[in-house]
Amino acid sequence: MEKTLIDNETKEITQKPSIYSYELQELEKWLVENGEKKFRGKQIYDWLYKKRATSFEEMSNLSKDLREKLADHFVLTTLKTAVQQTSSDGTMKFLFELHDGYTIETVLMRHEYGNSICVTTQVGCRIGCTFCASTLGGLKRNLEAGEIVAQVVKVQKALDEQGERVSHVVIMGIGEPFDNYDSMIQFLKIINSDDGLNIGARHITVSTSGIIPKIYQFADEKLQINFAISLHAPNTELRSRLMPINRAYKLPDLMKAVKYYIEKTGRRVSFEYGLFGGVNDQVEHAEELAKLVKGLKCHINLIPVNYVPERDYVRTPKEQIFKFERTLKDHGVNVTIRREQGHDIDAACGQLRAKERKEETR
What we know:
362 residues, DNA polymerase, domain 1, alpha/beta, 36% helix, two-stranded antiparallel ribbon, 2 domains, 13 helices, ten-stranded mixed beta sheet, TIM Barrel, disordered N terminus
């Protein structure tokens, strides 16, 4: 049985830290402070990320004493697969159960360029987007960095059986990544590490609904990570109706932050624009959107939305999607329509969790 620790301030019982939350240099520092050799860090990382060990006992080239120290101080986070769905197109959706009984979603998508995994950063979400199943029931808690890392490791283990690997990561699952900023940054560093999962920075994308102060902070990190904004509307009034966060962080201020990011990093920004039938998908919306992003180093990703029973939005007809795309292209905007995947499973973000775990999403 896993041991727990007591937080002296809150008096709450909490789990020990996940060893997956530690960067290599942090783990090496801990080892030295606990009377061990620094080089053991790389051995442990090898067990975690190359051999994909599921217990400290498996780490046979470590002394029994060190294995006991690790077990006393850390948890080797293992996620329990509650539900696994596989689409006819190869998309795999996992509902993972955490140590406290909460559940999260992780999705594996297969592309011509490789296998991409979409990870979750929070149990639930407090942002309240009116079209999203993830926000049903609000935010339960943030994930520890190691719990985000464990999602990639768990899916990679499933791919090991097929001789494949995770090549790309998108942080677009349940939750707002910038609302769990420190854990997200730690996660990025760990999966990008040569000694860790060695996923290239330019193969990683993080998306935000628009927490403006964190966008400035993220720009100043000067990472080579791809950056996306969940936009979904071309004006303040409509965006506030679709995304309540726009009432706190208004669209004009968001666009200023985006310009700062582009100037600071020199990198392109992607705007995610979900198309909702009769709401934000008319030609006049496309023209307004083109005007909004004019002159920016950007790309617009049009997303035909998945139907969510708990929400009232319907999918835009195909003809209208193509008309919207053509309008943007006629205005010189770089745009693509996202390829639909997982249409025959619970594909919408948060949908599987809402369906399987009603007590979490009430």
